[in-house]
Every structure is written in structure tokens, then in C-alpha cells.
Amino acid sequence: MALRHLVRRTIATVARPAASLIEMPRATRSTARKAAITEDQTEVKTVVATVKPEPDLETEPEAHSPRKVKKVVKKVTTKVKTEVRVKEEVVAPEAKTKVKTKRKAIKNEEAADEDEAGEGEDAKPAPKKRKTKAEKEAEENMILAPRTAVSSLKRSMFIGAHVSGAGGIQNSVQNALKIGANAFALFLKSQRKWESPPLAVENRDAWHVKIKELGYDAAKHVLPHGSYLVNLAQVEKDKADQAYGNFIDDLKRCDALGIELYNFHPGSTGGDTKEAAIGRIAAQLNRAHKETERVVTVLECMCGSGNVIGSTFEELRDIIALVEDKKRVGVCIDTCHAFAAGYDLRTPEAFQETMKRFDEVVGMGYLKAIHLNDSKAPFASHRDLHANIGTGFLGLRAFHNVMNFAPFQNIPVVLETPIEVKGPDGKMIEDKQIWADEIKLLESLIEADVESAEFLQKDKELQEKGAAERKRIQEQVDKKAEKDAEKAKKDALKEAKKGAKEKGSMEKFLTKKKPKKKEKENESGCDSCGEGDGE
């Protein structure tokens, strides 16, 4: 009985507005009902309780069966469309009724209340405002560091970085100015594709305007980098023709842009001998020089991994020796590559010895450019891992040596250091401020006192910054060295066993007993009795 009274009260509370419809004439009930039931609708959800009801001690000896309770609840659920605007919850011993509103206005009010209360754990961040085209252009052209007049430096060092030419090759000039560069490198087209659209006339003209406007010397201080796809030592004719086509296209672009230096990786043997590969590289250069006007093809020194050519000064010398027009060929020393290949640059003595060796083998007259990179990998590791200036195994002292070496004046000195950092959203982005800061750091090393507190503090700071990465790479190098040593030991043992086996077989063959000839029997006696001619 108690449950029945409670359910009746629930019906009376929830469905009260519907009672007025009964008193209306039948003709007007439909219209009134539609007016009463608007967007403000309420769902009445019922959940049958699993708890056994307590009996009404006054009127009932025992609780009603669950089946009867369900029937009563179903009667409640028929009254679902009302004008109720307040959330109510009626809980019975065996049934729990929830009334939820759907009114949009109430939801909006609740959302407003949450906003006023402050940000909650589930609060969504406000959408980022998109930058206008003008704002993007202003950000792209913002100067990160002023360009230093080379005439104000104690040495004529033209320092820059490898900048982007995205959106038009003329944009690379502005990008160089942005980081305070006095020289720069770039890709003349996409270095990831074999085929690219021809150089647009409007981009070519805009390049010449920008170069003149910002005061760069395209002939002396711009150093394009060749495609990583190109291998001039390619053996197969189809692949060799493809490589040459890409290469000569770049040289012709240089001619159109007034650029007179072009840096590229010499190539790889492809399993052939180095002598043969060097011959093919020189042949392709001779062919290219005849098809272009004045571009100097600059061989970049490499780190000595695998079948790559150009990791020793002798290999560079051998290529140059086969080039017919010696004025059209030169060398770019990459500090990371040279160090990884086994040429030390860290101390003044080691640096001078390396440069002396280069002059003796190649000739300082062939030096046309420098790539500046520290090395994440240790000395003579043959690993091409660029690091930011002063953070790698070369250290700041090596770059002090570079910046104060007279033959490096008046040629492009180009940074290829990493500039990718993790952005606020966790994605990797380019931070060009790194290049701007490194250019200023390098300029400050000209005739700097390496024993000064300022230099020593900066050296220490940069070394600490790169310590974790150096340790990680050193462990990789050591692990590989152990594997290589173990493999070499096993190979040597295998060869020794093979050699011993072959030697044993040969000795066995040489010492094999020849069959004995039958001795002639003594005509006057026999062997068994030992009798003979004599007494």
C-alpha cells in the first residue's frame, strides 16, 4: 500500500498539467495538448529496484510481488510529455524514477554557469585564432638577428645557413636576411624528386631583384646543394642518365641565376671498384662543364661510410686529376664529415696538421666552401650525425680554429646544424632562431681569447647541453665496435680453420705413400730361410 501511494503521488506531481485537458471539450483537446507539449519535454525513465521492499506493517503483511510493481511503474511511464522545467528524482523502495529535461535554454544556462565558475578538468581549450595572410607574411619576414657587416669583422668571414626556397627561389634571399646571414645555401628545386617543373621566369627575375636589393653576391656567397638522389658514379646506363639529367638541370639553373658555385656529394661505387667509380664521376663532370658556362662544381668531403666516395683527400684529388677544366672544380670541407672520416680539427695543432695535409694532397686553391657542423658521433666513427655548434664531439674550440684560419675568408661558410624543436602541441617545428644565434656565436669567435672566462663558460654550457646525446651515440658506436670486433674474430678463426684444413689436405696429398715395387727374388736362395750365395 505504501508503494502504491508513493507512485500515485509521483503521477500527480509529474503529470499534473495533463489533468486540465480532461476538463476541456474533445474538439479543443488536441489543440490544447499541442500547445502544452512544446520543446520543453521531459523523459521519465524508470529503473526497477533490486532491493526487496519492506512490508507496510499497518496494512500489509508482506511486500507486493515484483510483477505488480512493474505494472504500476509502467503506468507512470505513460505520462512522459509534460511542461516540467525542473529536474526531479523520485526514488521508491523497488523503483527509481528519473526525470530529465531537454530544454535547450536550460542547457545554455548551465553551460554559462560552468564558464563563470572557471575552467574544469574537461574544459576544452578555446579554438586558436587563424592568422591572416598579412600576419603570416609579417612573421615570415621578421628579422631574428641583424646582419653583421663583414667589413666590421676582423676577418672577412661570410657565414650563413642552408635556408628554404619554398614558394619561390627568391624567398631564400629573404630567409637568409631573416637570420642575419652573409652567405647561404639552398636547394634549387625539390631534392626528393627526379623531375621538377622548369625555373619560372617570374621567379628568376624576382631572384635577381631580391639579390640586388638585399646586397648578396650570388656568384661568390651562394652555395646551392645538389639533390641527394644523384649519384654520378652510377654504373647502369639508365640510372646514370637519370642522375646526369637532374645534375645538369641544376647547373643550368645556376647559370640563369648568376650562381657560380654548386656543391654536391660525389657518389657511391655501387659495388664497383673506387677507381672505376672515380673515373665515371670525372667523365660526367667533363660532360657537364661543356654544356654550361661558368659554374664551379664543388665536391663535398664525406664521412667514409659504406661505398661512399670522397671521404679521403686522396679520393677528392683523384677526381680532380681527371677533370679537364680545373677552373670548374673545387672542394667543400664539411667539418662533421671530415671529423667522422678521421681528420681531427679539435686542437690548434690537430687543425693545422689536417689543413696542411689537405694542402699537400688536394691543394688549398681548390677550397671553395665550408659546411659548419658539430658531430654527435665520436672521432673517426664514419657516422654522419650533425650537431649544433659546440654541443658535439668537436666542441667550441674546433670552431674557433675554423673562424681564425685565413684561407677560409671570402668563401661561403654555411651552417647545416639541426633546428627542429618540439612545439607547444608536441609536434616538431623549425626554430630559425637557432641559426641566427649560431651565426652571432661564430662571428664572436673571430680573434676571441679561448682562455677567457667568457669563452670557457660558453664552451662548458654547450658541452653540457649536448652531453646526453653524445653519450647515447657513443654507446651505439661502442656497441657496434664490439660487434664488428667479434665478427672479425669469428671470420679470422673461420679463415684459419679453412686454411688449416686446406693445408692439411695438401700435406696429406703430398705425403701420400707411393706403392712399393716388388723386389726380385734372389735366384739362389729364398727370403724365408735367409740363405744366399755366400757361405
From TrEMBL:
From which domain of life does this come?
Eukaryota
Cross-referenced InterPro entries: AP_endonuc_2, AP_endonuc_F2_Zn_BS, Xyl_isomerase-like_sf, Xyl_isomerase-like_TIM-brl
Which Gene Ontology BP annotations are present?
base-excision repair
* Name of the protein described by the UniProt record: Apurinic-apyrimidinic endonuclease 1
Q: Which PANTHER family match?
A: APURINIC-APYRIMIDINIC ENDONUCLEASE (PTHR21445:SF0), ENDONUCLEASE IV ENDODEOXYRIBONUCLEASE IV (PTHR21445)
Q: Does the keyword GTP-binding apply?
A: no
Listed GO MF terms: DNA binding; DNA-(apurinic or apyrimidinic site) endonuclease activity; phosphoric diester hydrolase activity; zinc ion binding
